[in-house]
From TrEMBL:
The keyword Iron applies. The lineage of its organism: Bacteria, Pseudomonadati, Pseudomonadota, Alphaproteobacteria, Hyphomicrobiales. Residues 22-122 form the Cytochrome c domain. It comes from Bosea lupini. SUPFAM superfamilies: Cytochrome c. Residues 1-21 form the signal peptide. This is Cytochrome c.
Amino acid sequence: MKLPVVAAAFAAAFLTTSAKAQDVSAGERSWNKCRACHQVGEGAKNLVGPQLNGLFGRHTGAVEGYSYSTANKGANITWDEAVFAEYIKDPKAKIPGTKMVFAGIKNDKEIADLTAFLKQFDKDGKKM
C-alpha cells in the first residue's frame, strides 16, 4: 500500500521539476532583450549596463569600471536566482533609484530560462 503513495509522490516531484526545467536555448533568445545594454561571454565589456559574466554570487555594484547608481551600490545584494528573479520582474521596485530602464520580464519560465543562460558564464566569460 505504501508503494503507490511513493510512486505518486515521485511522479508529482518529477512533473514539477520537468515543468520548471530551465531551457538554455530559450534563455539565449530572452537574452536578446538584454543585449542592447549588457554583454556576456569572453571579451564582454560594460555598455549602458555592466557586463554580466559571473553574475550569480556577485555583489551589487561590483563590476570594475562601471558607473553604478548610488542606489545600486548601496543595495547590499548578492545576486542569486531568487534575487535575480525578483529584480528582473521589476528592477525599479527591487532597487529604487536604479538607473536600469527596463520594463521587466514577468513570466517565471522565461526568467528561469534567462537565469540558466546567464549561469553558463563564469567571471571571465567562459562557459562552465
